[in-house]
Design brief:
5 helices; flat; about 110 residues
């Protein structure tokens, strides 16, 4: 997706027998890496539904889901935690990641010299 030098990635549920850019079952979100900070929009409920059904995310999608706490939510759900406990843990996980991301400051060459 996207255009030349402007990548935009879709997070989808697809059958393994379908071609890479072919038909998919459901659109689950978007990932825009060039925005500062990167922009990720996910449909949390549907992603958890597909993961519970046995969907296997790619490595890149797994890292995005982990960063947003969805893999933690899936793990806690499988262990039998209540919904309140799950989402409280996910919120604390997201706040920790927000702190980490805010501490990463990109500095350009001009800012380093001046």
């Amino acid at each position: 997706m996207g255009r030349k030098k402007r990548p935009l990635y879709g997070v989808v549920a697809a059958d393994t027998r379908s071609p890479r850019d072919g038909r998919f079952i459901e659109d689950l979100g978007r990932y825009e890496p060039l925005h500062e900070p990167e922009r990720v929009t996910l449909n949390n409920e549907r992603i958890l539904f597909w993961l519970e059904q046995g969907a296997q995310p790619t490595d890149t999608v797994r890292s995005i889901l982990s960063k947003h706490g969805l893999m933690l939510a899936l793990h806690m759900k499988r262990k039998g935690a209540s919904d309140d406990e799950i989402w409280a843990s996910v919120d604390s996980h997201r706040s920790r990641w927000a702190e980490i991301e805010s501490s990463k400051v990109k500095v350009t060459a001009k800012e380093q010299i001046g």
